[in-house]
Amino acid sequence: MTFTLPALPYAYDALAPHMSKETLEFHHDKHHQAYVTNGNNLLKGSEFEGKSLEEIVKGSFGKNAPLFNNAGQHYNHLHFWNWMKPNGGGDKLPGKLAKQIDSDLGGLEKFKTDFAAAGVGQFGSGWAWLSVKNGKLEISKTANGESPLVHGATPILGVDVWEHSYYIDYRNRRPDYLKAFVDHLVNWEYVESLYSKVA
Amino acid sequence: MSSLSRRRLFTAAAGVAVAAAAPRMVFAQAMAPAGAFKLPALAYPYNALEPHIDAKTMEIHNTRHHQAFVTNLNNFAKDNPQIAEKPIADVLANLSALPDTIRTGVRNSMGGHANHTMFWEIMGPNGGKAGGEVLAAIDRDLGGMEKMTNDFNAAGGRVFGSGWVFVNVAKDGKLSMETRPNQDNPMMDGKLALFGNDVWEHAYYLNYQNRRPDYLKAWWNTVNWTKISERYAAAKAGKLAV
Ligand SMILES: [Fe+2]
Ligand SMILES: [Fe+2]
What we know:
With 199 residues, chain A is mainly alpha-helical. Chain A has helices spanning 21-43, 53-60, 65-82, 97-105, 108-121, 167-170, 174-185, 188-198, and strands spanning 126-133, 136-143, 154-160.
């Protein structure tokens, strides 16, 4: 397959004031587009041509760094746009997810704190994650384009902590960005839809 | 403070600060652990590098990002005064000797402190042109100025995520180029940076957004070659601290 950049699932200004139109324009139209363009160029003629995105991400990890970086970031960002929505966040989680967060992660409030802390603790560029591994939820962080996908887990929520995600709106204040993300942006319905596929 | 009076203050302080920088650091470290690590004063105002680097970027970069590394180091030093008692190069070259609890933190924060201290020092307005021994070394070891800047920009562009691109200087004056992720510093492998550029997005995002190559190209207008020549001489004399 070749990579393509889908349109955002909401208007560029739909996440303001927590994430500005300007941030989404650069992040989606420039950064994500660059991963798509570079990924396609690197894919051409490689052993991964014709494979699915997840196969490319897993197969290139540790073997073909330039392809992995771009394919990994394409995968991460495809989900990232859907992991947010206007008027997201909140305390009412759909389906079985709330119960699972209670039993595996000590409840929603503790999850929010620990998830944000994972994002703050990721030194440099990367992501913080909620994923499912062997039927259990876990919180983790990864560098650059990595994700739990290459560590035997299925990501169901992730937040981009590359500075390009928040620098226009929050400057150096990554903790404020992460708080806004968990409180106002998370699209729990999308998280639940990914969870229900693996749980 | 107006930018004019601030500029005058910085200009007046610049000569003193440069001359006093090394001994003051030694003195401060002997006083460990209370606030042993300090944010070095810039020898120029925040707006001095415009339009290549904007004043807001300089201010946040210096007073937030660099300050955070200094604050972290002083916190680590409360229970581990040894990190402030030895020269930075020694601590960074022997990270494995540190307790597990602080090793990664010291790597990140002391690397960040060393990198940014060097970074502020090798930039400035009216930085002149490369000459003398440094230019001869660039010709000899890195294929000349044009090839060196092209290679440096390409290497900086290839850093995926956060990191730095460096030109290192060996004790015999030989130059080499390398990149490192995050806040790693050549001292972690017993090497020494002559100069380097920060390619974390915070270094350029307000002005250049996703256009890192444009930043890398423009950055050369901010380089202070007089300072780099001083550093080159100091490195050969075994006196370059950071
Ligand atoms: Fe991103
Ligand atoms: Fe920096």
